[in-house]
Amino acid sequence: MPIIREQVKPDSIYTDTYPGYDVLDVSEFSHFRINHSTHFIENHSHINGIENFWSQAKRHLRKFNGITKAHFELYLKEYEWRFNYSEIKSQVSILKLLIKGYLI
To answer: Which PANTHER family does the annotation name (predicted)?
Structure first.
């Protein structure tokens, strides 16, 4: 729980109904559960986007055969960038700007 208290905004925890998340119900956080079998999207709250990201990120990171904790954030950030700029043209354009020194 300490890392959650340090890193997570109090009203930003959305999960599915997996019992492993029950510990969040006894914390000071507002914990919102999304039941996929009854509500697909309710009040614009759904977790499909993050589930999609994590599914693809795990598949991408698996090919490295283990990543140390010290470097995990860098690998994840690199994949986040690739996920957000999935078109090769976007990636090339941004890399060219970085090389020219415009995005430092």
So the answer is: DDE_TNP_IS1595 DOMAIN-CONTAINING PROTEIN (PTHR47163), SI:DKEY-17M8.2 (PTHR47163:SF2)
